[in-house]
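Researcher: Let's do a round of design. I'm pasting the structure tokens now; please hold your answer until I've finished.
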């Protein structure tokens, strides 16, 4: 396959896929949204659908993005989101430490019933830092050789690292977060509702003393966290202001070692940069050795479009491809806000794809690939295994009858049903064969 001169913008819209929603007259957010720029791309390309990780798997974003970049880990060997987020947030993590993804959550004072898995989502950096400091100072494990470090990242998200100075901890333990399961090391959304959920006990998944120790330490962490945070000044203030207290941390996706993977540029024989912000996306990019471009905060869509186009221009040291992750749609899906998701897609269309179209003027024959890492249907308020639409657009790509970037056109498109791990090689082939 000749790849000389190929220029690709690869956009993953987090949680973009959806199902018909009554608030949108039984359309999906993509179908209901006014997206003239995406529509124009659809008319100049071909569509299909993608099962990002595997049939029947409602994946978390980490393993889904790895797959969409060509790394399936189906033969095992995935290290877990906790490790990827640790790498993303620069915590001092070593092989044998236990790394977990945490959520600040709200629980009832008396029975550990979870009333909000994200403690209201709005958590300031100061609140998160104050709470994490109290926990780092206050948590005393019964085993004196164990210690804890916490790094708050974005909103309700926090990274937990537990270290034992005399033992490598095992990652073979279950989650305390009831919303996700671990399947072959991958985080998978469970079909639970948010209405009747409790903090779970971490259980060892084998008989080793390392797994028993890891589970015991996570359970001590949970119990002490709830005690320390019950009357914490941050929570007294939050409650007084009518906000949900951040009085618990739910842990999931344990991992205990660095991943070993082939760098992405070597895998595809081209140079691929990226524009990412979330800690998990930063972790993935570091693991794959991608060059990261600064492009403001999560919703600086115009800037992201400008930086993406510039990264491909030969006169600025241009790469061959740039992967852009846009977090926007996913949170609306989790919150069940179909109208919000529609509005967000309209904004992305106007402020990202509209600007990108103009900024790419100086790039010769670019190909734009658009897809998602998974579906987050608003009616489910969680990730699902529904395939996501895929669009490969550019002059010379054999067009099908796609008129809009929607789930429906994806279903009818000429690219058919692909696996996530095959998307980049398929796009490269279509781009090179023109
Ligand atoms: O936003 C995230 O971090 C994940 O995609 C969803 O995680 P959550 O269900 O814990 O918010």
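Researcher: That's everything. Go ahead.
Model: Designed sequence:
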């Amino acid at each position: 396959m000749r790849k000389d001169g190929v220029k690709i913008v690869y956009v993953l819209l987090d949680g973009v896929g959806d199902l018909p929603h009554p608030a949108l007259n039984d359309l999906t957010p993509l179908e209901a949204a006014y997206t003239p720029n995406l529509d124009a791309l659809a008319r100049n390309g071909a569509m299909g659908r993608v099962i990002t990780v595997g049939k029947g798997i409602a994946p978390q974003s980490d393993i889904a993005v790895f797959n969409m970049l060509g790394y399936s880990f189906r033969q095992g060997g995935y290290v877990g989101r906790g490790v990827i987020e640790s790498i993303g947030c620069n915590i001092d993590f070593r092989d044998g430490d236990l790394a977990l993804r945490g959520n600040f959550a709200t629980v009832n004072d008396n029975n550990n019933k979870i009333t909000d898995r994200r403690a209201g989502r709005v958590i300031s950096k100061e609140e998160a830092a104050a709470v994490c400091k109290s926990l780092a100072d206050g948590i005393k494990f019964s085993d004196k050789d164990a210690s804890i470090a916490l790094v708050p990242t974005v909103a309700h998200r926090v990274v937990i690292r537990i270290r034992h100075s005399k033992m490598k901890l095992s990652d073979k333990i279950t989650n305390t977060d009831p919303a996700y399961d671990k399947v072959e090391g991958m985080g998978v959304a469970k079909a639970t509702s948010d209405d009747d959920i409790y903090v779970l006990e971490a259980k060892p998944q084998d008989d080793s003393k390392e797994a028993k120790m890891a589970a015991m330490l996570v359970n001590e962490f949970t119990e002490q966290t709830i005690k320390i945070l019950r009357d914490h000044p941050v929570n007294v203030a939050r409650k007084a202001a009518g906000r949900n207290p951040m009085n618990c941390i739910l842990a999931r996706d344990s991992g205990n070692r660095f991943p070993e993977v082939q760098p992405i540029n070597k895998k595809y024989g081209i140079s691929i940069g990226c524009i990412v912000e979330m800690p998990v996306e930063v972790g993935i990019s570091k693991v794959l050795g991608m060059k990261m471009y600064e492009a403001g905060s999560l919703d600086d869509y115009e800037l992201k479009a400008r930086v993406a186009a510039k990264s491909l221009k030969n006169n600025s040291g241009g790469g061959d491809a740039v992967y852009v992750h846009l977090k926007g749609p996913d949170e609306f899906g989790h919150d069940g806000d179909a109208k919000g998701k529609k509005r967000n897609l309209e904004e992305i269309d106007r402020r990202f794809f509209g600007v990108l179209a103009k900024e790419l003027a100086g790039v010769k024959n670019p190909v734009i690939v658009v897809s998602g890492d998974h579906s987050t249907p608003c009616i489910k308020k969680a990730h699902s295994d529904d395939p996501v639409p895929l669009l490969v657009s550019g002059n010379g790509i054999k067009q099908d009858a796609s008129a809009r970037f929607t789930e429906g056109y994806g279903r009818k498109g000429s690219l058919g049903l692909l696996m996530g791990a095959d998307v980049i090689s398929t796009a490269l082939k279509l781009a090179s064969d023109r």
